[in-house]
Specification:
single chain; 398 residues; alpha/beta; FAD/NAD(P)-binding domain; six-stranded mixed β-sheet; five-stranded parallel β-sheet; binds flavin-adenine dinucleotide; FAD/NAD-bd_sf; oxidoreductase activity; SQRD; Sulfide-quinone oxidoreductase; FAD/NAD-binding_dom
Length: 398
């Protein structure tokens, strides 16, 4: 009998749990316990809509306890405070949990404190509280210079592009004046998405009067300005910056000397120094984008290889292949879909069309409101549309 503990229940933890339950359906002697500090799942890709008043937070969340009850998985709503890989124990605010196999899926810790003034004067959309705080700030904002973007050490820049475009659309509707300046540390516009998507975003920003400054770092944020690493000062009445990401303190013992506190794994999603520990989602120490998409792909690999350790599946170990995939809502009903391999050149997709925002919304609705993904374990990663619905192909056009 193996005691399996999954720490965290976002995209990484939830999909690992559902997949494991399926792999272990004929081996009831193995127990699965999920522990997460938030009793609800939050569909984070819809948070931009919450900030701009188009979505209600309650429509993008669901209770985890009944979901896990239906799956026969024990769920504990508690914060993990530490992990002892030698004693194989997870410490939580509700007591210790002993494990034989552990999956860490705690996501990223937002670290605004790394940039003076950011927590005080900046806004973001990274969690429900922040999205609502920004919503309230937008109601007060009557126009004037705005700075939008993401700080150094952020590994999910996509939401900031959506925020900049949504802000521009809102200001145009309300006849408010900018300007909007976009700041980010990437070597070129949206570099991980590839040159075609990046050049498209350069043109889109130019058409909408958004100026990109990059690559830049953020030194500090003040009430009326953003100070860049080279001491350039950008006037700002509304500052929306995604804060730096770090690994959670609770996983410190597994992160070793990783400078940002991430847990390093091999491609089987097994922690490098701890073979009984798997990792899925933002907690993993891979370079490049940290997404719901990558978290779910990693969760499937982790669940399969863990089940294989227990003799529940046969065949060779599976390996994760890093790729990004997302739909940027461009406003006005238009969307940009990008899917791209990050370790090789195998997948290069970028298309522009009006079906993408609808597909994105449909996926969000299905994820939150139906059992398709969260109970049946059907893969939720990577939107696919038939060629005739996918719109303009930016790769073949370039
Ligand atoms: C505005 C926005 C838009 C986005 N859009 C997209 C998109 O379009 N496509 C895409 O693929 N990705 C998108 N992302 C990124 C995506 O949401 C994240 O990459 C994803 O949520 C990471 O999944 P995760 O499971 O690693 O972590 P999370 O989803 O952050 O889950 C972490 C889990 O760990 C729990 N936890 C944290 N700390 C503790 C603790 N100490 N003890 C116990 N439990 C703890 C939490 O309660 C939660 O259950 C977006 C993100 C944002 C903010």
């Amino acid at each position: 009998m193996a005691r399996i503990v999954i720490a965290g229940s976002g995209f990484g933890g939830l999909i690992t749990a559902v997949r494991l339950r399926r792999h272990l359906r004929n081996l009831p002697q193995h127990t699965i316990t999920v522990v997460a500090k938030d009793p609800q799942f939050l569909y984070r890709p819809s948070l931009v809509g919450v900030a701009f008043g188009e979505q209600d937070l309650k429509h993008i969340t669901f209770d985890l306890a009944p979901t896990y009850r239906r799956l026969g998985i024990e769920f504990r709503a508690a914060a993990v405070t530490g992990i002892d890989p030698e004693a194989r124990t997870v410490s939580t605010t509700e007591g210790d949990l002993a494990y034989d196999k552990l999956v860490v899926a705690l996501g990223e810790r937002l670290a605004p404190e790394e940039i003076p003034g950011l927590a005080e004067y900046g806004y973001s959309v990274c969690n429900g509280e922040e999205a609502l705080r920004l919503r309230a700030a937008l109601e007060q904002y009557t126009g004037g210079p705005a700075v939008v973007g993401f700080c150094q050490n952020v590994q999910t820049g996509g939401p900031a592009f959506e925020v900049a475009l949504a802000l521009q659309g809102r200001m145009a509707r309300l006849h408010q004046e900018g300007p909007i300046q976009f700041v980010d540390p990437l070597p070129r516009m949206w570099a991980p998405a590839g040159p075609e998507a990046g050049e498209f975003m350069v043109r889109t920003f130019a058409e909408r009067g958004i100026t990109r400054r990059g690559p830049v770092t953020i030194k500090r944020v003040e009430a009326d300005r953003v100070v860049l690493g080279d001491d350039t000062e950008l006037e700002s009445r509304l500052t929306i910056l995604l804060p730096p990401f770090r690994g959670h303190e609770a996983q410190r013992a597994l992160a070793g000397d990783n400078p940002r506190g991430w847990i390093e794994t091999d491609k089987t999603m097994r922690a490098k120094r701890h073979p009984d520990v798997f990792v899925a989602g933002s907690a993993v120490g891979f370079e490049g984008p940290k997404q719901g998409h990558t978290a779910m792909l990693q969760a499937e690999v982790a669940a399969y290889n863990l089940a294989r350790d227990l003799g529940a599946v046969s065949g060779p170990e599976r390996e994760y292949v890093h790729e990004m995939s997302c739909v940027l809502d461009l406003g006005g009903g238009e969307g940009l879909f990008v899917r791209r391999s990050l370790w090789n050149e195998e997948v290069r997709e970028a298309s522009l069309g009006r079906t993408w925002p609808l597909a994105k919304e449909a996926l969000a609705y299905a994820f939150v409101n139906t059992p398709i993904f969260k109970e049946w374990g059907i893969s939720a990663h990577g939107l696919r549309l038939p060629r005739w619905l996918a719109g303009t192909d930016l790769i073949s056009r370039s």
